[in-house]
Amino acid sequence: MIEWLFISTGLFLGWSLGANHAVNVFGSAVSSRMVRFRTAAIVAGVFVVLGAVVSGGGTTRTLTTLGAVNALAGCFTVALAVGLTIAWMTKIRLPVSTSQAVVGGIVGWNLFTGSPTDTYSLSRIVTTWLAGPLLAAVFAFAAFKIVTALLRGRRMHILTLDAYTRTGLLAFGALASYLLGANNIGNVMGMFVPAVPFGDVSLGGLLTVGGTRVLFFLGGLAIAVGILTYGKQVMTTVGRDLYKITPLAGLVVVFAEVLVLFLFTSETLEALLLQAGLPTIPLVPLSSTQVVIGAVIGVGLAKGGKGIRYNVLGRIAGGWVVAPIVAGVSCYIALFIVQNVFALEVVRTSSYVITPEVRSELSQRGLDSQPLAQLDGKKIIGSAQFRQTLQRIQPWSEKQMVLLFDCADLDTLVVDTVQAFTQREPLPLSPQQHRSLAAFHGATFEHRWTLDQALARADSSWREPTGTLPRKHVIAFLQLRERLYEIFRIRP
Amino acid sequence: MDILLRKTLNLEHQIDDYLDLVIRGALLFKEGLKCYCTGDIEHFTAHLRDLGAIESSADALRRAIETRLYSETLIPESRGDVLGLLESIDRVLNRTAETLTQFDVEMPDLIEELKPLFMELTEASMAAVESMVSAGRSYFRDPERVRDYINKTMFYEHEADNRGDQIKRKVFRMNIDLSWKVHMRYFAYHIETISDEAEDVCDRLAIATIKRSL
User: Fold this and answer.
1) Do B73 and A33 touch (CB under 8 A)?
2) Are residues A158 and B4, on separate chains, in Cβ contact within 8 Å?
3) Which residue of B has its CA nearest to A148?
4) Helix, strand, coil percent values for chain A (each to nearest 5)
């Protein structure tokens, strides 16, 4: 029961996302009365849930690499702080992005708990915040020019154009809803994934649904409820002010939004790019509001640049900076209160140990571990304490911190093949993997990487796939490893 | 795609039919007045009857179009403009039918010398109506050509004003009863007013077309 209380803040976040972001999908269609609100809400609700459940994994993984909020009370606090930040900023009429607030919240959790922030992931996310709206503007500009050129030669009747626009708005609105669900479910439920409170759910013994999918389904439902209950108010107020554009321009805007969300959400596209040897686009939760604003500006420029309100642009840019900072700070304060006043565990207590093996592994990964020799054999409890101890020796960059935390994390694993081979949802093991794993039955490993290395030495099929393989395989491999850790982990 | 457009195509046909009726109304007016000037009252009456029937069908068709535009929430952005346009075009047709009816009611005794001028006035006024209909049709299909037809309408409206002015100047310099003079002026004014109504439609169209291009 307590799980429901904890994820309630995630559901609240989902509700506010649905209420505030439905306008980005069907705003121009509904406020221009091309599509009835009820039709729009039903289509958006259904497709958001589908998107979240079917394709919600990609962006969530990027968020969890940024910081794995690993205790349920921590997730609760982060989601609550972020939700309140969004509500407050919306109230004082500052444009707010759920994605940015969530990232700010996770970094706030990292800072409070002393966990390292993966700066590589962070920089990738921040870059896409700029790239998203920019790309949307470029797509909208090009699409508007093409559409107007095509229409000029066609002599299409105003009513035929109306029918096509209406159908287009509905079709692209459905697609955009699907992608919104897929892209933004990471914001709503992403931080609950490392601490997923549900087991697998069996549907009549025919189909087993994983706990993460159940989480995504609930998050999708929360977004859908947000659209149904509060979407209309936002669409008819915000939508009218912000997206006062013709239905045709509205269609171009939604089309550009679909393209951009697809680029930053699709795992299939990423796999295709990898296969072609091209650089991939990071799968990151975007702010659909900013993508749409980018697209509206693109259309404005295509019409000659008149009517673009640069002061509004300034406010939006300000919001990009303010949102993550406010969310981060409020999250930090909220965590302090929850931990010290309510005595709840906001971070799973981890232990860290430096041994000659750990140091040698660190050296192998390119870190000069000699200064750490003085810590040999010393067990440190708590991430904040570990960070302080390390900082006393010498200053470390965040990138080095990520390495140190990863290698020194004391995560005792006992290989139990009986359990591993009798899972309700069987592990996707190849015959070689099955054989080599069986040989380790009963063995104990102090760190995750020691198990990885032992398995890799025993059979090449356990070696981490290289970058040339499609990401799908890499992800499947990493998921398999995560499941093994879960099964073998000795809980304190 | 056909299923999607079937209802729309039907409405498009209705709008085209409505505009066709306005054109036919203008032609009937022209023919009717020609018959009146030549004293062929039998054909004049037949044209007047046809014009009355056309006006009634146009009214029914306009109402049907307006109802569908509203009930099916079609072209929400341009609906107000289109409804205003259809109603102002309807005023042109009403004025045309009303003017011909006045000929039937009052049977004005057209001065022989002025008959050619009355015919020229009618030609110019009806040319304005025809150009106005073309402008209206272009608004629906080819907004870029609206401007050309609006210019034509303005030209013919100006021509009609000139002919009307000529009739009035001539008639008030004639040595006839004042009541006759006033009667002639009254009919010249009414035929002129049809082109003025057409001009008003074009003023609306100009703004509606700019709004469509935004």
Assistant:
1) yes
2) no
3) B213
4) 70, 5, 25
Please state the ipTM of this predicted complex.
0.86
Contact predicate A322/A94, CB 8 Å: yes
Note down the domain range covering A373.
351-409
Q: Which residues pair with A400 in a beta bridge?
A: none
**Percent of chain B at pLDDT exceeding 70:** 98
The answer to whether residues A186 and A315 belong to one domain is yes
User: Pick the residue with more confidence: A290 or B166?
Assistant: B166
Are A32 and B76 a contacting pair at CB < 8 A?
yes
Specify whether A298 is located in the same domain as A427: no
What distances in angstroms separate CA A444 from CA A329, A416, A427, A448, one per listed residue?
Answer: 41, 10, 20, 10
- Which helix (H) or strand (E) segment holds residue A451: the answer is helix A448-458
Residue B14 with chain A: CB contacts under 8 Å: none
Judgement on whether residues A174 and A118 belong to the same structural domain of the protein: yes
- Average pLDDT in the A222-238 region? 78
Nearest chain B residue to A36, by CA? B73
Which residues numbered 64-93 in B keep a CB inside 8 Å of some CB on A? 73-78, 82
- Shortest distance between the Cα of B5 and any Cα of chain A, in A, equals 7
The model's confidence at residue A205, banded by pLDDT at 50, 70 and 90, is: low
Residues A467 and A393 in one domain: no
**Cβ-based contacts of A303 with chain B (< 8 Å):** 214
DSSP string, A35-81: S-HHHHHHHHHHHHHHHHHHH-HHHHHHHHHH----SHHHHHHHHHH
CB contact under 8 Å between A155 and B5, yes or no, is no
Q: Is residue A345 part of a domain?
A: no
Q: Which pLDDT score is estimated for A46?
A: 93
Q: Does residue A280 sit in the same domain as residue A393?
A: no
In B, minimum Cα distance to A29 occurs at B76
Residue A146: pLDDT band with limits 50, 70, 90? very high
Is residue A156 a part of any domain in this protein? Answer: yes
Write the secondary structure of B64-97 as one string of H (helix), E (strand) and C (coil).
HHHHHHHHCCCCCCCHHHHHHHHHHHHHHHHHHH
Fold exhibited by the domain B2-213: Methane Monooxygenase Hydroxylase; Chain G, domain 1 (1.20.58)
Kindly state whether residue A48 falls inside one of the protein's structural domains: yes
pLDDT of residue A478: 79
Q: What is the pLDDT of residues A70-111, one digit of tens each?
A: 677 788 888 888 888 877 876 676 667 788 888 898 889 888
Please tell me the predicted confidence (pLDDT) of residue B136.
95
**How many domains does chain A divide into?**
3
Nearest CA in chain B to A160: B8
Residue A257 and residue A295 in contact, taking contact as beta carbons nearer than 8 Å: yes
Q: Is residue A325 part of a domain?
A: yes
Q: Where are the domains of chain B?
A: 2-213
Whole-number pLDDT of residue A125: 81
- Local structure of residue A117 (DSSP, 8 states): P
Q: Residue B27: what pLDDT?
A: 96
Do A159 and B78 lie within an 8 Å CB cutoff? no
Are A144 and A162 members of one domain?
Answer: yes
Same domain, A365 and A331: no
A142 and A68 housed in the same domain: yes
> Residues of chain A with pLDDT > 70: what percent?
85
Which pair of structure tokens corresponds to residue B64?
Answer: 């049907």
Cross-chain residue pair A163–B73, CB shorter than 8 Å: no
**Which residues in chain B touch residue A36, judged by CB atoms under 8 angstroms apart?**
73
Write the pLDDT tens digit of every residue in B10-52.
899 999 999 999 999 999 999 999 999 999 999 999 999 999 9
Mean local confidence (pLDDT), A249-267: 87
CB-based contacts of A442, cutoff 8 Å, min separation 6 = A414, A415, A416
CA A128 and chain centroid, separation: 13
